[in-house]
Amino acid sequence: MEEYCIGVDIGGTDIKCGLFTLEGTLLSRWELPTDLSDSGSHIISDTAASIMEKLKGFHLTESDIKGVGIGVPGPVVGKDMVEVAVNLGWKEYRAAREMEQITGFWTSVANDANLAALGEMWEGSAAGCLNAAMITIGTGVGCGVVVNGKMADGFHGCAGEIGHIRLLAPEDIIGVCGCGRTGCLEQAASGNGIVKLVKREVIDRKRESSLSGLEAFSSREIFDAAKAGDPVAAECCEKLMGYIARACSVIACVLDPEVIIIGGGVSGAGDYLIDGIRERFREMAFPPLKETPIRIAALGNKAGIYGAAKMVRDM
Amino acid sequence: MEEYCIGVDIGGTDIKCGLFTLEGTLLSRWELPTDLSDSGSHIISDTAASIMEKLKGFHLTESDIKGVGIGVPGPVVGKDMVEVAVNLGWKEYRAAREMEQITGFWTSVANDANLAALGEMWEGSAAGCLNAAMITIGTGVGCGVVVNGKMADGFHGCAGEIGHIRLLAPEDIIGVCGCGRTGCLEQAASGNGIVKLVKREVIDRKRESSLSGLEAFSSREIFDAAKAGDPVAAECCEKLMGYIARACSVIACVLDPEVIIIGGGVSGAGDYLIDGIRERFREMAFPPLKETPIRIAALGNKAGIYGAAKMVRDM
Predict the structure, then answer these.
(1) Mean pLDDT for the stretch of residues B252-261
(2) Average pLDDT, chain B
(3) Which DSSP state fits B54?
(4) Cβ–Cβ contacts within 10 Å for residue B171, how many?
(5) What pLDDT score was predicted for residue A203?
(6) How many angstroms separate the CA atoms of B168 and B185, rounded?
(7) What gap in Å lies between CA B37 and CA A270, rounded to an integer?
(8) Chains A and B: how many Cβ contacts under 8 Å?
(9) How far is residue A48 CA from its own chain's centroid?
């Protein structure tokens, strides 16, 4: 009887896997390293072998498993075709078909940011909500959108690419985005973006800051400095929070979600970040929507495997 | 046997009704005037009586009808509660329950702009698409969003309120929006908005234009003047097209729809408008999405009844 499903989250460093009941209980969680050799062509077979091994340990057979859900860092079309996943070396790769051929398990693939939103909706900060958006602030800025209880993938697999909404003020534009344009949200409001903003202040403009002496610093160190009262760091954190709040206000006007979740590495800044975003959102949002809750993600780096499992469970 | 459904589109002037087969064929279309007296409290009973009369003519009984779908100009929660519909005099009105109590037909209510998108997806310019957005440029700017084949209502019934995305350049902000803020899209990129832009040029700034002598002019006359080569009108039309293109680029980053449809009264400007929006969209959109088709709506003022019928058909 199909009582279990598998959630997989493939990243550039490791592959996270989870064995779930169809009710959402995570029974076992394990990781394996991502083998990037040969254009990432061993990734799916490594994952498949690891899953089969795990199932053997649980005395589960094919008939017990509803299927495998896989999250990947790139746009996915038709729950199978990975258009491109630069960090894995994949390009136009039918990852679901590959997994199905090896394991015999019915498989579905989707973008990792979208799956994280679905995971938070299943068992995390948006539990019970049928409409939610989750903004992931990491190296860049991504977003997953759930509408009527289902993930939005987008026609080209690009739903939630809010990091490329162009809304930076001219004075905050530093260089060109990876997409070839200027002014994209993630150029200032991401982990990389805020480092660029601070470097401009302390290196190019030689402003005094607790970060001035350092060889390099991370977004985490910037937020810590801001919390400790460093005015340059605080100013740049405020810019990040203002831009994320603006993105939230845009998402609210388009989708009116029940809740907006903030996740990703930068969300480790906690209440300082969330309170700042919420305050600015209330000031700038369309008035009927200004009380839309903005919450920190609950599942951390497990959101992806939860979402991948949920996707399979619902199909 | 349930083989038919009813679509209703309630406006401030008239109520449009349609009798459909479940396959999407419009068998009969009729209208009745909107009675705005007594805070619009006769609207549903008038509509119900008109439907029953029509069904009698077709020799149809309750068992032949799957249900009634109703579109209203305002936010709707839970397919029943109309939060507010200023033009009808309604406030916190359970319109679906009222219709059900009178007719015995299962009834569902939604926002009219959202239903127009669903209608275009069923039998119009987005036919066959599971993911589409339809921007309605009329007095204001609205938008309906369809994700995975289902309409997005939003938690407060405000999905698609893109007219209140704040993206106007400071020089194009004239006065305060109805929502109490400044810089909202619809303050420049709507029928009312473009009239304000042109009036500022020809009246306040006394610029020479073919529209200068007129007591009043409509968005239609502005587009006609632009097509005839009037530089002031053309400049303001370009602003409108640029802002709508920007809204399209935002929607593309959030939802990546298969197609974006442009409807509403201002869309009567035809290819001049659509070509202008498309050209600007291609310049400013996230590169993987810049070929997203932008098309003019096909169903005209029938989109609402098609969408209302489709909503009931799918439930």
Answers:
(1) 98
(2) 95
(3) H
(4) 7
(5) 93
(6) 6
(7) 53
(8) 128
(9) 23
CB atoms under 10 Å from CB of B58, counted, come to: 12
CB contact under 8 A, A254 and B255: yes
Which residues in A lie closer than 8 A to residue B245 (C-beta atoms)? none
Chain A residues in contact with B257 by the CB 8 A cut-off are 154-155
Q: In this complex, is the C-beta atom of A315 within 8 Å of any C-beta atom belonging to chain B?
A: no
As a whole number, mean pLDDT of residues A136-146 equals 93
Q: Do B152 and A147 touch (CB under 8 A)?
A: yes
Q: Which amino acid makes up residue B77?
A: V
In angstroms, rounded to a whole number, what is the distance separating the alpha carbons of residues B216 and B77? 38
Interface test mutation site (partner B, options A143, A253, A261, A289, max chain B beta carbons within 10 A): A253
- Cross-chain Cβ contact B255/A152 below 8 Å: yes
Is the confidence at residue A64, as pLDDT, over 90? yes
Residues 6 or more apart whose CB falls under 8 angstroms from that of A100 comprise A106, A107
Q: Which residues in chain B are closer than 8 Å to A166, comparing Cβ atoms?
A: 249, 284
Length of chain A as a residue count: 315
Q: How confident is the model at residue B139 (pLDDT cuts 50, 70, 90)?
A: confident
CA distances from B41 to A278, B75, B90, B92, B102 (A): 39, 18, 8, 12, 13
**Percent of chain A surpassing pLDDT 90:** 95
Question: Rounded to a whole number, what is the distance in Å from the CA of A261 to chain B's nearest CA?
Answer: 15
| Count of CA atoms in the C-beta half-sphere (13 A) of A68 | 29
User: Structural domains in chain B?
Assistant: 4-121+302-313 (3.30.420.40), 130-297 (3.30.420.40)
- For A27, the token pair is 């029974």
What is the arithmetic mean of pLDDT over A20-43?
Answer: 96
Which chain A residues are within 8 Å of B286, Cβ to Cβ? 158, 161, 164, 179, 181
- From CA A132, how far away is CA A125, in angstroms rounded? 10
Asked whether the beta carbons of residue B154 and residue A288 sit closer than 8 angstroms, the reply is no
Residue B131 has its nearest CB partner, among A155, A250, A254, at A155
Q: How confident is the model at residue B315 (pLDDT cuts 50, 70, 90)?
A: confident
Residue B251 near residue A254 (C-beta atoms within 8 A): yes
**Which of A184, A255, A259, A282 has the most B C-beta neighbours within 10 Å, making it the best mutation to test the interface with B?**
A255
Confidence of residue B215 (pLDDT cuts 50, 70, 90): confident
Q: Which of residues 185-224 of B touch A (CB under 8 A)?
A: none
For residue A124, what is the DSSP state? Answer: S
Determine if the pTM surpasses 0.80. yes
Nearest residue on chain B to A283, alpha-carbon basis:
B181
